[in-house]
Structure formats: structure tokens, C-alpha cells
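Lecture 7 notes: from sequence to structure.
We start with the chain below.
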Amino acid sequence: MKLFEILQNTPEDSQLITDSIVITHAKLKRYDKILCSISGGSDSDILIDLCQKFDESSKITYAFFDTGLEFQATKEHLQYLEQKYDVHIEHVKAIKSIPFCCKTYGQPFLSKQVSEWIERLQRHHFQWEDETFDELYKKYPKCKAALRWWCNDFKKSSDGKESSFNIAYNQYLKEFMIKNPPDFKISNKCCHYAKKMSANKFKTNGRFDLNIYGVRKAEGGARRTAYKTCFSSSEDKCDEYRPIFWYLKETKKIYEKYYNIEHSRCYSEYGLKRTGCAGCPYGKNFEEELIAMRQYEPKLFKAVNVVFYDSYEYTRAYRKFVNEQKKISGR
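Predicted C-alpha cells for the same chain:
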């Protein structure tokens, strides 16, 4: 379909959608070997619909990166998308699955960055001591960055907010860990091997010249704040384009209603607000995910409780500790 014809049929109350359509049209004309990552989530539902408005010459390779711990509803939804748009979505297996990574390297806890710092400290047999940075650096001379995190060595921002590179960024975490040292391995390697490395390997050897994926700035988080615009160019690697980068929550609703976007049962039936690695402990609402899994996907519920058991228990204990400290301090 021609760009003019498509623009004749766009929602009048969203310039963001119109802009994304125009820019996506330009990108698809300029590049020849395009990779588009499809997760089965609500953002990628908009992403594939946006791309398929123009991909008449089938330049796009759609790929789903299977972490080894996925909702059955997500897999069913991918089949629905293939039928709806008459495309093939390639399923790419993880270099190392999430269950394997958690068993081998450790379980994720709280966030990727926090897990990274804790993993480094555990690697140096840290004893969770409440001492100064200088004192600890003498004991653990090869663990400087993680010790700086532990000792809140990074300055606060100009508005007085705690640095995200300090443990104090997560309220009472240091106090909790001193009283309750982790007795299991903590690591963010599951994200590294199941997602990042798998995607990087799939993109190598000049196979693609443009990588499209559905990151939105309004969602926040480390990945979203790492980018300032919807496009990144690279001389030695494929360029990156984020078509819905500027979409707000309201923009998504307008797009979904206007273009009749249907999401997976994770949203429509399970009542989840997000999908991704099933039951990931990084999610603030993993308890709600577990409730839904227990009801709708009992096999997956059992699996995640085995894979993430220690992290779940440690997170629950930490959250309870925070609530108790808030009551004591009167906050």
C-alpha cells in the first residue's frame, strides 16, 4: 500500500502515530535486510502491525528469542500473528536457557544491576561487612566497583536523589543483606545468555543492516534510558530503529483501538500488565504473575518456582523487612 493511502486512514488525534508511520516507511525503503524482534507482548503487537503496512517485498525477518521459560499463551499468540499477517516468525533458541543459567551461575534478584554487583561480591567471597570503603578495599582489592556500590560511594544527584549506582538506591537493602546474607548464588547471566547473546549471535556476519525492536521511552528502565532517540546508526554493525520509542500509554491505546490490535491471552484472559520471561524476579508484580500462572498455566507455575525459588523467598523477605523498617521509622 502507498504511504499516501495509509496516511489517509490514520487516527486524527495522534501525531505520534502518524510520525511513526512516515518514519517506518522511510526506513523500510532505505534498508534491504531487516530484522524485527517480536516478543508476543503488547508493544511488539503494535510493532509488527506498523511494519506490515509497508513490507510488500518481504524485507523483514521476524524473530522470537525463546528463553526457555515462556508462557504457552505467548507461543499461541505468535502463531496467531503469523496467520494474521501471513508471515513467518523464526524461533531462535537461547544460547543458554534461563533454567540452565540460574542453575549454573545464579538466580536474578531485584534488578540486573543489583544482581551484577552482588555476583561480583560473591565471587570475591564477600562477608557483607558494614565497614568503610577503604577498609573493605584492603580486604577485597579486586572488587572496587561492587564495593563502591556497597559503600554508597557515588554522589547523589543535584536534586538530592540517591545514585542508582549506590545500594541505598534500593531502600534498606544494605541493612537487610547485613542481617540476611544471601545463601544462594545471585547473577544476571540469564538475561545475558538467553536474550542479549542469542540476539547478537543471530545478527552477526552482516546478515542484517537494520534491527527493529519495540522499546518505548515512557516505559523507563535501563534499556529505555540508554537511548535518546528512535534511531541509532553504526558503522560496523547494523543500524537500530525503535518505531514506537515515543509512544505513550495513551498512544498505544489509540493505536490498539483504531487498528483493532488483539493481544495474547496473557493480557486479555490472565490479566497481566506485561509479558516477558515468565515469573522473572525482576518484575515488581511477579506475585501477580504467579497467581495467574497457578490458575492458567500450572506446569509453568511449577517450573518457575523451581528455577527462581531462592530469589522469590529472598525478595519476599526483603520486602517484608522494608515494610517493617518503614513502620519503625514512621514513614
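Points to note: The longest strand covers residues 60-66. The CA atoms of residues 80 and 264 lie 9 Å apart.
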